[in-house]
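dumping the sequnces here before i forget
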Amino acid sequence: MFKNIVHSKWFGSVAAIFIVLLILPPLVPRFYIYILALIYVTSLLAMSLNMVVGYGGMFQFHHGVFYGVGAYAVALMLTKTSLPMWVGFIAGPIVAAIIGLIIGWFCVRLSRLYFAMLQISLGSLIWAIVFRWYSFTGGDDGIHGIRMPAFLSSLNSSYYFILIILVVCLIMMYLILKSPFGSTLQAIRDNPQRCEAVGINVRHYQLLGIVVATFFAGVAGGLFVVLERSVFADLLFWTLSLEIFIMCLLGGWFTFAGPILGAAITVALRTFVGKYTEYWTLILGIMLILVIFFLPEGVMGFFQGLFKPGMKEAAERGK
Amino acid sequence: MGSVGPAELICQLLVGFSRSMILFVVCAGLSFVLGVLRVPNIAHGSLYMIGAFATFSLTKMFAGSVGFWIALIVAPLLVALVSLIAERALFCHLYQREHLMLLLFTFALSLIIGDLVKIVWGAEYRSVSAPALLKGSVSILGASFPRYNLFLILVGPLVAIALWLFTNKTKIGKISRAAAVDREMVGVLGINVSWVFAAAFVIGCYLAGVGGALVAPTVSITLGMDHTLIIEAFLIVIIGGLGNMWGALVGSLIFGVTHSFGVLFWPQFAIVFPYMAVVIVLLLRPKGLLKSVW
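..and the predicted 3d for all of it:
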């Protein structure tokens, strides 16, 4: 399996980028390191969403909930218990995956639009509980000043931690999507009826896809805590979920690296536009309209279509 | 908590009803658009917010209690105008595209409107006082009940009847119902489907504006009111059955009443109660209580 990765034609350039990112921290101002780390966390989140949306063809409209649940699980483990830190970091993704299993169990029974709206509603229920349960989750104040273990005390060490976890997760996601399971998921996206006919349990695979994706969203949530040392209820609010959706759209649905690009563009724009204007959502909205009208395949899809017409056809079939 | 007497119970029930009526007016519009265009209009909540803010400005512009009545007529028209512009300038070019793109377009619209409202009206909390006629409260079984809420309970059924008459007795209403069922056939019959969609969209958004105007005297008008409303409206439309106006009415009543009893019995988690009701309904009837038009 790993041989595939090493022999892939992208391996050289990806490894080069990884090495550049590894040597950056001493050379670049702190602020940029922070932004880069935020991009990594957001990328992981967007990639995990793309597993179900781009590869699975499901309308996962409230993915932010699993991110938030993962973050809250880690934060609560670190603040309310005295268990070692790694227990918390394992608990975060697992709790997110369990919530993903429960919500997904309801959602896979329904078709596309109902799926989306039911997920928004069930997710909002969890948001409402987190938002109101002051004694446990801190309500709308959230939890701040979470103490990290010594080896994560500085920004640079957090940066390395996040980068390494990101790379490990990316490799895992890549292998999952290249595995028979990943192919089945894409087959279901392209033609659920035919898959049903050849004896694939469609709901079972879709549910498994949701669980895997929510697990990685939970990892991203844990990394958010490492970076920000705080959690707040907005992480579970549905506007964030749609923002992640936009990142996938912007980067390109049917490409593996598209969401990373989308997340990077969105986070960078928000940071730099935010310096000049408080009307960031206006810019985001205009950007989204431009993408819908002119770049429906996303930035990655656009370039791939430019260089490789075959890819574009594949993407078209994907719809 | 303490003891809850029958008077409080009835009052709380009526408060729930009056809130349901505002939700109904908004959700009927959302459901109408959903039925005809098959798009969950995320910007619906934002248009409702415009309606509320416009009501604030209009009541301030006209002194005296006549201002509110003018606002009740003008604000929804303003909202309808905004939606007409958005529809004709941008949205109508997307009808051939996938549903997801239409949905994301409405999200983009809601983001843009959210910030435009911030630019025009600022981030402060605003309030509108009810007109003199509806100020104060009446006594029901010894408990006092605001007059304005009584007014809302009367308005809801009126809107329902008006909408029913519109969809069942007028030509354009019938065409839009037909377009909801089979849009190709409507096109084949020589009707310009694009304009039917535009009309349906604008009428739906007009109702969002009416809802915004009606809610203005009962809440503090602020940015973000669109976000909470749209989720509630989605839920109501789902549990009612997509595109079914009576379903929107039933859903609104369930939502409003469970919320008001939540306030009575467990205020901290009041907002959780309607969500629980929704989950229960969906477990029993995944496609909604009443028949969806799809």
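Strands of chain B lie at 137-140, 143-146.
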